[in-house]
Amino acid sequence: MSDQLAIGIDIGGTKVAGGLVDVDGNITHRARRDTPHRSKSPAVVEDTIVEVVAELLQVVGSGTVAAVGIGAAGFVAADRATVVFAPHLSWRHEPLQEALQKRIAAPIFVDNDANAAAWAEWKFGAAQGETHLMMITLGTGIGGGILINGEVQRGRFGIAGEFGHMQIVPGGHRCECGNRGCWEQYASGNALVREARSLFSASSPIASDLFDRAGGVPGNLTGPLITQAAQDGDPTARELLSEIGNWLGLGIANLAAVFDPGTFVIGGGLSAAGDLLLASARETFKRQLTGRGYRPEARIVAAELGNDAGLIGAADLARSGVQPAIG
């Protein structure tokens, strides 16, 4: 029935993806827009969200979905309504729920995109049955979510799980958040592309395959292109992914020392590299884990829902927040 459907919206640094999601976590219809390059202002991104929701509502009719869940790549306040800060978008204390509710005729819930992804993987994906889960999403940056006994842990102010902004290299690379040495500057899609482009700048002969794939234009290098090169056997691309995996494993070991989860789920676009990334992450994790050899080790697994996890989780979390559903 249509009143079992919810709309999930996943907002990243480069795209706004939406879908109609049923109670079993299946996406029945999709819509997508690129995040406008000319402007990432709140008003422009808000317009883009409304466009995606309107396209999806045309499929089932206005007023027939339970709720709309927004998964935002940023710090979301405990009220699940306000985006406090978004490193990759121009949101600063943005009342996103209020702004959208004026334009969308369904209950709106805003959550961090990694919280949403964690929920989806726990309920429908790689971490079903896990009591203590940590989700790490590798995309433009790094997002994180924490679930304990089936509850999202948002922290006192709603901002828990921002793992990407742990400082692991004092005085290191400048991060878009304003600090230096953040984890996402070493273990994300942006970090992968930066390292590949540095080989271009150095005119390194070991980057010849990547150079050809990018048509000789450094700006054409992307995470998916490098990942595909690695999957095709290019040794330099594989080395780059392995280095990113080492940084990933180091950060995971630090998180294990604090939270001691049973499972780490690795999602986001960069997770498509699979064991080309995760093999080195697991090895580094084992080397750096506090008390190694004397304690149980958490599993490190790839997300099963891929890039859909945030969208599915946002929809399901929103639906669970509305009783009864409208329609």
Write the layout of secondary structure elements.
Blueprint (H helix, E strand, L loop, with lengths): L5 E6 L3 E7 L5 E8 L7 H19 L7 E5 L2 E2 L6 E3 L6 E3 L1 H6 L6 E5 H12 L7 E7 L3 E7 L2 E2 L36 H13 L6 H6 L9 H9 L3 H25 L3 E5 L7 H14 L10 E4 L6 H12 L7
Helix pairs in contact: 3-9, 4-7, 6-7, 7-8
Explained architecture:
The protein has 327 residues and is an alpha/beta fold. The chain has 2 domains: 130 residues, Nucleotidyltransferase, domain 5 (2-Layer Sandwich); 176 residues, ATPase, nucleotide binding domain (Nucleotidyltransferase, domain 5, 2-Layer Sandwich). The chain is built from 9 helices and 13 strands. α6 packs across α7 and α7 packs across α8. The longest helix has 25 residues. The termini are close together.
CATH topology of the largest domain: Nucleotidyltransferase, domain 5
Q: What is the overall silhouette?
A: globular
Distance between the termini: 10 Å
Q: What series of H and E elements makes up the topology?
A: EEEHEEEEHEHEEEHHHHEHEH
Number of helices: 9
Summarize the amount of helix as a percent range: 25-40%
CATH superfamily grouping of the largest domain: ATPase, nucleotide binding domain
Question: What CATH architecture of the largest domain do you see?
Answer: 2-Layer Sandwich
Query: How would you sum up the major sheet?
Result: 5 strands, mixed
CATH class of the largest domain: Alpha Beta
Strands across the major sheet, in which order?
A: 3-2-1-4-8
Proportion of β residues? 15-25%
Key terms:
327 residues; alpha/beta; Nucleotidyltransferase, domain 5; 9 helices; 20% strand
